[in-house]
From TrEMBL, chain B:
Domain ABC transporter: from-to ranges: 6-247
PANTHER family in the cross-refs: ABC TRANSPORTER ATP-BINDING PROTEIN, CONSERVED COMPONENT OF ABC TRANSPORTER FOR NATURAL AMINO ACIDS-RELATED
Coiled-coil region(s): none
UniProt KW Nucleotide-binding keyword: yes
Keyword vocabulary terms for this entry: ATP-binding, Nucleotide-binding, Transport
Superkingdom of this protein's organism: Bacteria
Gene Ontology molecular function, alphabetical: ATP binding; ATP hydrolysis activity
GO CC list: plasma membrane
Protein name, entry field: Benzoate transport related protein
Source organism of this protein record: Limimaricola cinnabarinus LL-001
């Protein structure tokens, strides 16, 4: 369900929703099926790759909330991804090294519990997004893109120049953090956990999109003047969306740190912000499953083309160009509606 | 005489050297249609925007039900019941008719930060929205995306959204523009009935409609009001004849 799907007329919507739902279900089953299949064949590397797709899809889902539904082009979402990653890394670092994080007002030794790490990462992401959003939302259009990029770069350089947690070299997590009842070191169990988080996040976004808040958010994308004229301030709605978005992307960052058992400033780099945008464009901005379709396609191409040619990015660039020019609804728009938007 | 719903005193606004609003005083009384007419570029839309809070005046004051509005933004004024339509119609074009009007009802309710219940199943918003759609003459078109509406229908959608705001007054900027005689007449009949719900400040170029519907007319030329009066008085005013009505005839 996406902006476009919510807004379509019911008689056509019913037909279209079905088709979109089939595409969404196929994507979800495709991910889970692929993961299980390659695990059964003993291809552990591919299980890890599928886990990476699911984590990046969570990060993209966070961006989709502000970009797809709210129309805000944030070019700084690596900030939340990286902050989530560092939250996981730093908490685990203290716990594993037996060096308390702080002793006042109470002794805190860090933690290796995923649920605690996730909640902390989401709070950190939400706070950062609240601050960055409050300042960035004063601008619009290209200025908004640039100011979010600038904040992302600030945090990136801060991480590089702060030696306590590895600086440029990054921070290893020696043992993957734990989740009650699971052996997270088992690739398929970790994959299952990540998939569960992904589907929970997508369900949350689907619910938000249909709520009063979601209606106002989608109206803010279409016509801010009109939103004001019915008595709703777009700024507040967009800021709340930005905060939720930051929390979701930070959660993905925490998972990514655990996947790699390593956090580095590259998680904060603008390349990652760009990749998240690419996922959405590929998948179909504003469609619920766009981040999964986009991340899946991107990682698959990187894996397949990367093996064929060092210049895979060139071919990828051409593909992206084709999507932007000929299939504005992205992969999902193309499959669900069978039509191209010129 | 009843206390005016809207009272404007000494309003002025300049764009650089251009005086778009020049010491304008005007009121809108309960139950009336007050038309604001004048040539292109006279400053009609600029005046509406100052009333609705989209732009700030340089001087003067605006009162709604006796309450000063300086410092209240456009969203705040809409919540106070200022329901406006735009010269170039302005709706959420990807939304259906029903979604647009539900959005307006949601604005009037003041409760936007609700995250879990589906808004399109919220009868507290749906019932009044359907009602307003029917009153605006758009029944049967609820599920059509706004982008697919005919021009006149989009005008009606703006009226339905205004109705859903539980208006204290209507600010309508050329609601009949580009509607054709039939459509303009139908919309005129609708406005005729609405004045008893809330008074209407009507900017309009269609002189037949203006003289048929208005209780009072103000004539704006180069940002100044040169005359205010009943349709009969305005028709007979020699200055209005010279600078405005004459050149149209
Ligand atoms: N934001 C602005 N900046 C500078 N000048 C403006 C601005 N808005 C309006 N103007 C000028 O102010 C004058 C009044 O414009 P306004 O749109 O209020 O006229 P109007 O009476 O509504 O005309 P029309 O009948 O064509 O809609 C025009 O000369 C216009 O060019
Ligand atoms: Mg105008």
């Amino acid at each position: 369900m996406s902006a476009a799907e919510i807004t379509a007329a019911p008689e056509r919507q019913r037909g279209r929703m079905n088709r979109a739902q089939i595409v969404n279900a196929a994507l979800a089953l495709g991910l889970v099926g692929f993961g299980l299949g390659v695990w059964a064949m003993g291809e552990i590397f591919l299980v890890t790759l599928a886990t990476k797709v699911a984590i990046l899809a969570i990060a993209g889902a966070g961006l989709n909330l502000v970009l797809g539904f709210g129309g805000l082009v944030s070019f700084g979402h690596s900030a939340y991804f990286g902050l989530g990653g560092y939250t996981a890394g730093i908490l685990a670092h203290h716990a594993l090294n037996y060096t308390p994080m702080f002793e006042w007002p109470f002794l805190f030794e860090g933690t290796t519990s995923m649920p605690v790490i996730w909640i902390t990462a989401m709070i950190v992401g939400a706070l950062a997004a609240a601050m960055i959003g409050a300042l960035s939302l004063r601008t619009a259009g290209v200025y908004f893109i640039m100011i979010t990029l600038a904040f992302g770069q600030m945090i990136f350089y801060f991480a590089i120049s702060w030696p306590a947690y590895g600086g440029e070299d990054g921070l290893p997590i020696y043992v993957r953090n734990g989740f009650p009842g699971l052996n997270t070191l088992d690739p398929i169990q970790f994959f299952g956990l990540v998939c569960a988080v992904l589907f929970a996040v997508l369900a949350l976004i689907a619910i938000l999109a249909r709520s009063r808040f979601g209606l106002a958010l989608q109206a803010a994308r279409q016509n801010r003047q009109r939103l004001m004229a019915v008595g709703i301030r777009p700024g507040g709605v967009l800021l709340v969306a930005f905060v939720i978005s930051g929390a979701i992307t930070a959660l993905a960052g925490a998972l990514y740190a655990d996947l790699n058992r390593f956090v580095s400033p590259s998680m904060l780099s603008w390349h990652l912000s760009g990749e998240l945008l690419v996922f959405l464009i590929l998948g179909g901005t504003g469609r619920l499953f766009a981040p999964l379709a986009g991340a899946g396609l991107y990682i698959a191409l990187e894996h397949l083309l990367g093996g064929v040619s060092d210049h895979w990015q060139l071919f990828f660039g051409l593909l992206l160009l084709a999507v932007v020019l000929f299939a504005r609804g992205g992969v999902i728009g193309f499959l669900a509606e069978g039509k191209r938007h010129g | 005489m009843a206390e005016p719903t809207l009272d404007i005193r000494g309003l002025s606004k300049s764009f650089g050297a251009l005086k778009a609003t020049d010491d304008v005083s005007l009121d809108l009384r309960p139950g009336e249609i007050h038309a604001l007419i004048g040539p292109n570029g006279a400053g009609k839309s600029t005046l509406i925007k100052q009333i609705s809070g989209e732009i700030a005046p340089d001087a003067g004051e605006i009162r709604l039900d006796g309450r000063r509005l300086s410092g209240v933004d456009a969203a705040g004024r809409a919540r106070l019941g200022m329901a406006r339509s735009f010269q170039v119609s302005s709706v959420a074009s990807e939304f259906t008719v029903l979604q647009n009007v539900v959005l307006a009802a949601q604005g009037a309710s003041g409760a936007t930060f609700r995250f879990f219940r589906p808004v399109m199943r919220d009868t507290a918003l749906l019932d009044p929205a359907r009602d307003c759609i029917a009153q605006a003459g758009l029944m049967g078109r609820e599920d059509v995306p706004a982008a697919a509406l005919a021009h006149g229908e989009r005008r009606k959608l703006e009226i339905a959204m205004a109705l859903a705001l539980r208006p204290r007054l209507f600010l309508l900027d050329e609601p009949m523009a580009g509607m054709g005689t039939e459509g303009a007449r139908a919309l005129g009949d609708l406005l005729d009935g609405l004045r008893h719900r809330a008074p209407i400040l009507l900017v309009e170029h269609d002189m037949d409609a203006v003289f048929r519907l208005s209780d009072r007319i103000s004539v704006l030329v180069y940002g100044r009001i040169i005359a205010t009066g009943t349709p009969g008085e305005i028709r007979a005013d020699p200055e209005v004849q010279r600078v405005y009505l004459g050149e149209e005839a």
